[in-house]
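Input:
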Amino acid sequence: MNRIYKINSLLIFLFIINLIQSCGPSMDGYIGFDITHIQIQNLSNTGSDAVVTTENTMLPSAVAFKVRLYEGSNSVGLRMQPQTNFGFSSCVALSPPDFYYKSNQLIQNIRVVTLVDYSTSIVANTDVSDKFLVYPIVPAISDFLYVSIPKFCTLTTDQILMSPSIEFHLMCKETLSLNNAQFRIIVELSNGQELSVDTALLDLVTND
Amino acid sequence: MKRLLIALILTCIPAHYVFSYTLTGWFEESKISVFGGVATHHIEKRNSSEDVNLMNYLSYRNEFYLGVDAHVYLHEQWQFNIKTYLNSSLRTDDVFAKLIYMPHEKIGVTLGYASIPVQYGLYEIHEQPQYYTTIPNSDDVYDFAKNELFLAGLAFSFEGGKFSGTIYLQGGVSYLPNDFSFSWQKKYDSNERRLVEYDIPESYAFIIQPEVEIRWEIAKPTTDTSIGLQFQGKWNYSKRNIDYTRNIYTWTTDNKQTEIISHPKQSIEGVDWNIGLFYIF
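Output:
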């Protein structure tokens, strides 16, 4: 009886100091990554879902882009940050192990500047950020509806991600009246860095 | 069909056991019947404005059913009846119960309860021209609910030779519970997205429901038992509308438009009849 008591006490102690790990990775660990690059792709949003397209033609009522912010180096996966936890670890059995990521920089702001005349009253080089909304992909923080750019910046703060990148759709909520469109997307990060990318010059054509 | 018969037998045997053996002394007489019938409901459809009229998308199951009915004659002129239908999905969603007090040999009063499944056609409600529609968290094209009836009325029994029966004149309240449904909609050839919610509060309507039950005794195996054919029929009528609150969030959750929609009342007419065998013991 005394032996059982001692063994149980030892096991409880080992669990408390978290020496015994369950069969899977700790869920608290994540890999930090730097946002150093920006990528933009055109979206075709004529159907029920927006899909990436290589064509530079869009409907004037469905101007949309996919933006990806990521780290340019290939060493993200090698930087697993060790985490020390006290207390019981829950028993998990995950195979293969999942990795979680977190951006080392926060997104402070996203600006959209039109590079050609947006309309007859909004000329080239005007900030048209208020004409755009965001549909978050990574992190997936909205079920269906869009969020405003300021809200998106707030929502991405301290998000644990399933991949080492932040991805979102940038959707214009107005129907453009001119035949062409081109935008510069500028992402302001918390480390003072600005990433910018220009969209292709788009031909806006209607289905008629 | 085999499963259906087994289900009926499994229902009847314990009922017979309970009524005739365990609770002997409580009951003066018991009746069990099995039957097949058809229940149909007709809901008045009305062309509505651009606002969805939920009454146009409400429906009852109009189908053939098999049923079991247990009727017990208690002490002091009290009677109790419970009935359920086994539908084509082998589900007993329809339940009917009735308490009858017969202070006079031919005239009595009743209190009744019924629970009848109804369904809303989800996609018919949510689908809009110019929008792709998705109904999340739904694995069916219907949203199911229970229409509950709370009834009171008079019972008139009659007897002549081998025929006997009861006529019930009942009225009361028809109740539909609250419901909630939402869809995601994306406009054709546009970036516009919206979330449409239908918030339906519970609603009540007056209903009248006369019923008739006619029995024809075919044989008396013993002095205390009899077997025969039975016909049950009922008709009900009510007028109701289903008001609701519609929330439309366009583009973002901050852009919400709320409307309270109401339509004029529409009639619901139901006919339910069945024929079967009864056994009194």
